[in-house]
Every structure is written in structure tokens, then in C-alpha cells.
Amino acid sequence: FLGGMPDITEGFFWFTGAWIYMPGVFFFTVATALFLQYKYQINNRKGIVWFTAMALYIVAGGFNEIMPIWGLFFALFLFWKEKGGKASWFLLLFQLLILIIVFSAPGNRFRQDQFQENQLFFHSFGWSILYTFRFLLEWMLNPALWMWCFCLIQYSVSREKQPHPLFTNFWQMLILMIMPLFLAVFTPIWSTGILGQNRTINQAYFLFLFFFSMAVHHQGVRLRQIVPGLIKQRGAVLLFLLFGLSWKNNFFLWKELFGGE
Q: Where are the beta strands (DSSP E) in 125-201?
């Protein structure tokens, strides 16, 4: 994550980015994982899991406006996939309420008033498509990500478990991986007219890794039949560490460390 992060300075070394954005996506991801556990697994503590997930969604929504937007998207996705249902209905209304509360805050309206050429749909949509393609291409070119895939495939085959219902359809998995990034780009461009900073993209990268890993893990048995066993698990782990410690941000880290910059 640190090696391929779009902008590590805005993610951790800038106080606003570190405190307002990164904790928000962490709480949102945990809340989403808990809600999926509540919805698709038989558990004696489903009430506790549900309450914790809802509480974490509220906490995540308080960090920045992308969180309730993602929450509403996820709720709509589940509602469409499940064709309704009490849990999907409740999550949809719950996330909509959080979104209304966040966007009705005076600070959001004041910030949007500071920008003149904003809230242009076609401008925002077009640039969002281009930025989404650019960041996806950059992330998919990371060799550490593919070594991580090999590790997950080996682990998944050893577990021999049924795929999660959310990760059985290719197009549904693609939507879960791409749409959060698109929304993380579209929202700031719609609000300000430009993508001036990568704080929301850092969040999208974190969520992308979560859904990407889940998809590979739950499709491990099928992928093992497609991907030749040229790289053993130990080799994949070694290459993952090698590429992970030398890709992008970490490359410049070692360069500056040994170069004395």
C-alpha cells in the first residue's frame, strides 16, 4: 500500500490528509467487512456485528464527504444485487441519511461557493473517466500487486472454500473495484472544478486493494486453473517483498536515504 500509494505526502506527511482522510477509509473498510459478515454469514453475534458496522459507518462519514458517497454506492449496489431485502433497504436509507447530514453542513456549502467553474456535469464526468483510467493503469502496472495475487491464489487453494456471493460475478467485482475510484475523482472535480489533490485518490487506492484482494481470494481456485504454477508460494512472497520495497514511493525512499537527500 505504501509503495504504490498515489501521493504518500498527502496521505501521511500532511496533517490534514493523514487525519481527515486515511482514518476515514480505514473505518469504512472495516464497517463494510463487518456488514458483509452480518449479511452473508451465520453468526450468533449478528446483532453486535450489525451495530458495530453501523457505528463505524457513522464514524467514517464524519471524516470526509467521500465516505457517505461510497456508503450510498455500496448500499445501492447491494440493493440491486439482492433485489431488495430488509437489510439492503435499511442500509440504503441509513447511508442516504448520513449523506444528507454531511452535505447539509455549512462548511461544504461555503467551500463550494469559493469556486466559480464547478458543478459542471460533463466536464466532471469526462475528466473523471480519464483520471480513473490513468490511476487504474498505474496501479495495475505495479508488479508487487501481481505477486500478491500469486500469494492469495496459493492461500485460497489451500483453504478450498466456497466463493463469497459478492465475488462470484466478474462484472460485479469490476464495479466494486472501479466505481469507488471514479466517485473519489468525480466528487472533488464536481465540487471545485479540478482534482487539485490526491487525498481522495489515496482513499480509493486503499479500498481498491481491499476489494481486489477479496476478489482474487474468493476466485483463487478458478484462477489457479488459469494461471500456470510457474511461481511457487515462497518465490511469490520473495518477489512481493522485493517489488513492494522497491516500487514507486519506496524506490524514492531508498534513493533519498542512500543519496543523503
A: none
pTM of the predicted protein model: 0.79
Grid look-up 483520471 returns 131
86/49 Cα distance (integer angstroms): 16
Is the pLDDT reported for residue 252 higher than 80? no
Ranges 19-23, 52-56, 83-87, 197-201: which has the least confidence = 83-87
Closest CA to 151 of 85, 55, 206, 216: 216
CA angle 15, 200, 243 (to 5 degrees): 90
Please work out, in degrees rounded to the nearest 5, the angle formed at the alpha carbon of residue 192 by the alpha carbons of 190 and 195: 85
CB proximity list for 106: less than 8 A, separation 6 or greater: none
Q: CA 183 to CA 76: how far, in whole Å?
A: 14
249 contacts 3 by C-beta, under 8 angstroms: yes
How many DSSP H helices and E strands does the chain contain? Answer: 14, 0
User: CA 60 to CA 126: how far, in whole Å?
Assistant: 28
List, for residues 34-46, the tens digit of each pLDDT value. Answer: 888 877 665 667 7
Q: How far apart are CA 220 and CA 222, in angstroms?
A: 5
Other Cβ atoms within 10 Å of 96 Cβ, number:
15
